[in-house]
Amino acid sequence: MRNRHVRDLAWLIDAPDLFDADAVGWHGRIACLGEATPQTDTASFLDALDREPTPLLAALDLHAHTRLGRYAESLMAFYLRSQGVLVAHGLQVRSADRQTIGEFDFLVRIGAQLVHWEFATKFYLLEAGGSGHDADYFVGPNLADTLGAKMNKIFERQLNLSSHPDAQALLAEPVARAQAFVKGWLFYRRQGMQAPTIDGLSSSHCRGFWCTQTEWREAQSASSSLRHMVLPRLQWLAPARAETHDTLTHAQLQQWLAQYFDGDDMPIMVASMAVDGMQMHEVERGFVVRDDWQERASRRLGLAR
Q1: Of 179, 183, 202, residue with least CA distance to 10
Q2: Distance between CA atoms of 239 and 258, rounded to whole angstroms?
Q3: Residue 224's closest CA among 199, 251, 198, 204?
Q4: What is the reported pTM?
Q5: What is the per-residue pLDDT across 91-139, written as a single tens digit (0 to 9) for each?
Q6: Residue 182 burial (CB count, 10 A)
Q7: How far apart are CA 276 and CA 7, in angstroms?
Q8: How far from chain centre, in Å, is Cα 187?
Q9: Contact 198, 133 (CB under 8 A)
C-alpha cells in the first residue's frame, strides 16, 4: 500500500492481537474485530482507501495528533464508523461535580448488543533479568509502566466502567459486555528471542528485538546490504516502507545514534530495510537502548515489585 496511514490501519485490522482471545483465563473479555465486522471484505476496503485516502486523512486531522495511542484510536474509529458499528468513541464519564471518572474508548454494536471495547496499542521490552513468566518483566521503553500494570489497569478497572452509576446514567442502554482490544509489539533481547510463556498472551504476537548501543555496533556488519530507518513514535505501528534516500547506511546510523545518546536516554526504534522493487521494506525492527538502560530498567522493576 502506498499511503502510510492506510498501512497503519491495515496493521491494526490484520495484525495479531496481543492477548489470546481463546485463553480461558480471560473469560471472554478479549475483543474480536471480526465479530463486529463479519461481512467486511477487508482487502477490497483497504485497496479502495489506498487509491483514494482523502476520507481517512480528513477524519484523522493529522495536525492534532502527537500521541501514538490517540492516532491509533482515530484510525480504528474511522474503520468502525465506516462499517456502521460505532456507537461512540472517546465518551467521557463525569460525576455530578464534573470530575472525570473514566472514558469509553469505543462503544460498538454487535448484533443487538452494546459492547464496550477498551483499546490500546502497546510496546514493551522484556527486561533480560526476567524469566518471561511474569508480565511485569515487560517494561515500556520509557520505564513508565509494565505489561503487567497495563493488564491490571484494563481488566481490573477500565473494563468495569459501565458498572459505575454515572456511566449507567449516561447510556441509553446497558453495556452487555466489556472487552479489551489490544495490539502491539513485544521486544526480546537480541540474543535469543524466546517464545513467551505468559498465560493469555497470543503466541503469534508481533515481536522484535532490543539491544544496547554497543551490542548494535558490534553485531551489525558495515558491509551489510541492509539499510536502516529511525522510526518516530507515530510510525511504530505498521512495518515501514521508504525510498532509499530516506534510509541510512550502517555508518550513518552509528553516527546518528552516538549523537542522540550523548544527550538523551530514551530508547530508539530502528527498522532494518531491504530493497523491494523501487522501494525498501522493513525486514526487522527493534529498540536500540543506551548501555545503561537495562540497569535502570532493573531498578525500575525492583521498585515496582
Answers
A1: 183
A2: 25
A3: 251
A4: 0.92
A5: 999 998 889 999 999 999 999 999 999 999 999 999 865 555 578 889 9
A6: 22
A7: 16
A8: 12
A9: yes
